[in-house]
Structures are given as C-alpha cells and as structure tokens.
Write a structure and sequence with these properties.
The protein has about 475 residues and is mostly helical. α1 runs parallel beside α3, α4 crosses α17 and α16 crosses α20. The longest helix has about 40 residues. About 0% of the residues have low confidence.
Length: about 475
C-alpha cells in the first residue's frame, strides 16, 4: 500500500472526524449534510486534479471508500421495501370514515400525474432555451469504454422492455409472488409493494367494518412493525452526512472533469428546469389560497435531506412528519402522498429528465419534434412514471423506458449517466417537493388541512428530526 493512498485515507477519516465534531457541537442535520456534500465535491475534485483520472491510486482509493458510500446506499435499499410496505398498509387500514380512501387516493395521484406532465413540458422547453444540440454533445464526448459498457447494459434493459411491450410492463406491476416482490429484485417491485399494501390495507378495512375484534391484533402488529421500521430508518439516516461525503468524493475523483465541463450546458439546463418546477409548485400552493413562502420554509429541511441522500424513499418518515407536524396535513393523506410520491409521477426523475433526453435522442436520429411528437411524449412520460423507484438511478430507468416506448435511441442516456449524480440530487429534492405538494393540495381540497398549523410561524424541529440530529 502506497504512502499516497494511506495519506488520502487519513485525510478522508479527518473529514469524518470533522463531521462528527459538527454533530457534537449540535450543528443541524441539514447543515452537516450540505457540509459533507460540498466537502466531498472539493476533496474529490482536488484528488483528480492532483493525481489525474484513471490513476491506479485513485482507483484503489475509490474502491476503499466504497465501503462507506456504497454501503450507505445499500442500507437505504435494504429498508426501502419494508418501509413502503408498512407505510402504505398502515396508511390505508388506519383511514377513518366511509369514503375517505376514495377521496384521498385519486386526488393525490391526480396531482402527481398533472405535475409530472407539466414537468415534462418544462424539460422540453429547457432544451430549446439553452439551445442544446445533442449531435454536438455526442461528437465532443465521443465514445470510450466506460460509455460503451453503460450502453451495453442499457441496451439489455431496452431489449427486455421492447420484447415485453407496454402491456407487459403494466402487468408486471401486479405481483405474482409477494415473497419475490418483497426481495425488491424487479424494477417494478416498489410499485408492486405499493399496490399490495393498498390491497391489504383495504381488505383490513373491510374486515374492521364487519368484525373489528377479529382484525385488531393484525392492525396492532402492522402499526408496531411500522414503528420498528421507522426506527431502523432513523438510525440509517444518521449516517447520511458520512455516506454523502464518500459518494461525492468518489464521483468527483472518478469522472473526467473536462468531460463534465463539456456537459455543463445540459447540467445548467437541467437545474434551470428543476428550479422553474419548484417555482411552479409554489404557484400551485398559492392558487389554492395558501402561503407559498410558508410551504417553502417548512419543506426546506426535507428538500435538503433529499438533495443529499438522493432517495425519495428514505425521506418518507421526514416527509410524513413535516406534512403532519408543520403543514397541517392529516395523517392518512400525508402517508399516502409520501408513499405514492416515491413511485408515481416523480416530477424530476420521471418528468424533466426523460423529456430532455427524448428530445436530444430525436435530434441525434433526425426525427422532427412537432406538436404530435410532444403530445405523445408527455402522455408516455405520464404513463411510464408509474413504478419509477425513488432511489438513486431511477431516472435512468425512466429515461430508458420512455425512449424505448417512443422508439428512440438510448445512446444519449449512456453518455449522460456520468453526470447523473449531480443532477439526481436536485431531481430527488423536486420529487419530494411534488409529493408534499400533492398531500397539501389534497388535504386542502378535502377540507382536512389544518390551516392554523400550516400558517403557524414555528419552525422548531419535529420529533423525527430531533432524533436524527441527536
């Protein structure tokens, strides 16, 4: 082991010690996440500028710290299916009053689908606003072994979707084997879990109406399981600053900074589209007679967490607690919107990103982008947004799904995967904002929103945030 590698690892551990000291000095969780993110980008960039991309020491160091970065991601993946299952089942079976379920679910899904369609249009507009030419990007970036490897992996996914067709994709959402579903091995496992959880929760409701004593023990079990799973999530979330630092360090030191610079215009276009969509969320809040400033201020902690963790699913507990404790949303609506928002109508991952890549793929293939093409694209994006997992990398699958259905080439997806982590942070934050927006609008429409709590000026930490920061 070289002295350089040892020195890098000592410096890496030094940053971890700094993050620990920030926690010890009671710095907020969001402050520590942002500090880790920025420090990782700077540290990784300095390593690449000093040692160069492709250096054996850089590769060995990346492999060494993958224990911390990839380990954190695997912990999030480990808890995703149990969290979605208990959250969805509990949110449905705990609904009180006849007709409440039918009043909540359609509105939540409706808001998510409408906003993802609008996000797609904003993504399309950003391509033309920044005058992005996919042909020039392909020429500049060219082709290398890494891009070819990514392309080959994506092609296998595309072939699978092409052979199965849209009908098979929709049918795959219905789980034939719930035990296989719970392994999370399929792309649609998340939405399958949501569907099964809804069905199970609804069935519990039916039994509760007829013979409540027969099902009470099961209700108690699911509610207890939910508390245990949420406790597991909170323990994992405490590791977020350390995981984010390792992930950002790895990203910056293993990607060609000069190639990233060439993709800067696409990066800028993506962030502009995402910021515009954030603004539209605030407009929609004000349209329903609520303060957009209050919505932005109270959702900010969850947005920051999503930005750092790149996981809508990991944010479910914070999402629900923010909606109920700060925004005045009833618990049933909050649980449903937070859970649905992880796999349906994600504004960033399933809306903006696939739309931008579809336009760029059409440019490469010489396909005219007219009104009919745009309408077809928006409809396909709205349909394909069902089942996109709210974890890092979900947007790539969303893009492949949309481009496959549209009959477009996926080469551009493989080229842009290298900067996806930088975009994915903002996309995830937008996804979470969209899910909270759906909860607030639904509660407002159903008359279950506590406007006094929504308008309250207090921004004290919720119990969930206090426990994570401890």
């Amino acid at each position: 082991m070289s002295f350089t590698l040892v020195g890098l690892f000592i410096a890496f551990l030094g940053f971890y010690f700094l993050l620990f000291q920030l926690k010890k000095h009671k710095k907020s969780f969001n402050y520590r996440v942002l500090t880790a993110l920025i420090s990782g980008l700077v540290f990784g960039g300095l390593i690449q500028l000093t040692l160069g991309n492709g250096n054996s020491i850089t590769g060995n160091f990346a492999e060494l710290i993958s224990i911390f970065g990839s380990g954190y991601i695997k912990l999030l993946q480990m808890i995703v299916i149990p969290l979605v299952f208990v959250a969805m089942t509990a949110s449905i079976m705990n609904v009180e009053g006849d007709g409440s379920l039918s009043k909540i679910a359609p509105k939540v899904i409706g808001v998510l689908i409408v906003t993802v369609a609008i996000a797609a249009l904003i993504g399309i507009a950003s391509i033309y606003l920044f005058n992005i030419d996919a042909n020039s990007l392909v020429t500049v970036i060219g082709s290398n072994s890494a891009i070819e490897t990514r392309s080959n992996n994506l092609v296998s996914t595309q072939e699978l979707m092409t052979n199965n067709g849209l009908s098979e994709l929709i049918l795959s959402i219905i789980p034939a084997n719930i035990f296989e579903m719970l392994t999370g091995s399929e792309r649609t496992s998340t939405l399958s879990t949501v569907l099964f959880g809804m069905f199970l929760g609804f069935s519990v409701l039916q039994v509760k109406k007829r013979k409540p004593e027969k099902v009470q023990s099961f209700i108690d079990f699911i509610n207890s399981a939910k508390e245990v799973v949420l406790s597991m999530v909170r323990e994992i979330l405490k590791l977020t600053p350390y995981g984010v630092f390792a992930l950002m360090t790895t990203f910056m030191m293993t990607n060609d900074l000069f190639a990233l610079a060439e993709m800067g215009r696409f990066l800028l276009a993506s962030y502009t589209a995402i910021i515009v969509m954030f603004g539209l969320h605030l407009v929609l809040v004000s349209f329903f007679g609520l303060s957009p400033k209050t919505f932005a201020k109270k959702t900010w902690p969850v947005i920051v967490f999503g930005f750092g963790s790149r996981s809508s699913m990991a944010a479910i507990p914070l999402n629900v607690e923010t909606q109920t404790q700060r925004l005045g949303v009833d618990e049933e609506t909050a649980n449903m919107s937070a859970t649905f928002g992880t796999s349906i109508g994600q504004n960033g991952c399933a809306g903006i990103y696939p739309a931008m890549l579809a336009i760029m793929a059409a440019q490469v293939m010489g396909i005219p982008v007219d009104f009919n093409f745009i309408v077809q694209l928006v409809v396909v994006i709205a349909i394909a947004s069902f089942g996109i997992a709210g974890v890092g990398g979900g947007a790539t699958f969303a893009a492949v799904a949309v481009l496959t259905i549209m009959g477009l080439d996926i080469t551009i997806v493989a080229i842009l995967v290298s900067i996806e982590a930088l975009i994915d942070m903002a996309r995830t934050a937008l996804n979470i904002s969209g899910s909270m927006l759906s909860g607030v609008i639904t509660a407002k429409c159903n008359g279950s929103l506590n406007t006094t709590k929504y308008n309250a000026q207090s921004t004290a930490l919720t119990p969930q945030e206090n426990e994570i920061s401890a």
